Amino acid sequence: MNSLKQFLQSNIMAISIGIVYLWFGVLKFFPDLSPADSLAKNTMYELTFGLVPSNVSIILLAILETGIGLFLIFNLYRRATILIGLAHILFTFTPLFLFPEQLFNNTPFELTLLGQYIAKNLIIISALIALLNENKAKTRRYYSY
């Protein structure tokens, strides 16, 4: 029981982010279940210059997000997973430039629900950076002996 408590204490942030990734990733496997489904499809279409069909790109995105989630939850390949997560989460901001009309209402500070959905990713970026720094510190301690 004590080892489970220690595991949770040292991994709670990664597990929390992993659950969010897993949840949003699994939703994308089911058409129109994710509130950001059409935005994700349109963004992927633009980013791939239309070379990847929307029905394929959304499944690839679902696999990516689900994988990041599972790897964070189970503490697998932590550094690589965090870096992939950071790259992914940075791309979630591209709709701000591609589809601003879907993310803002009348003023640039009045976010739509989709805009808020994207804005919350700032927290995930911060947490992933903190995890990356924590991982670097652990690696340094491990190899400094």
Quick recap:
With about 140 residues, the chain is mainly α. The protein has one domain. It has helices at about 1-25, 35-45, 55-75, 80-90, 95-100, 100-105, 115-120, 120-145.
The percentage of residues in β strands lies in under 5%
Helix coverage percent of residues? over 70%
Shape verdict: globular
- Domains (count): 1
The overall pLDDT average reads 92
> Main beta sheet: strand number and arrangement?
none
Distance between the termini: 29 Å
Q: Give the strand tally.
A: 0
- Structural class given helices, strands, pairing? mainly alpha
Uncertain ranges:
none
The ordered string of helix (H) and strand (E) elements is HHHHHHHH
The number of distinct helices, counting runs of at least 4 residues, comes to 8
- Radius of gyration, in Å, reads 17 Å
Report what the structure shows.
The protein has 145 residues and is mainly alpha-helical. It has 8 helices and no strands. Helix 2 (37-47) packs across helix 3 (54-73). The chain starts with a helix and ends with a helix. The model has no long low-confidence stretch (mean pLDDT 92).
Task: Looking at this protein, list some descriptive labels.
single chain; 145 residues; globular
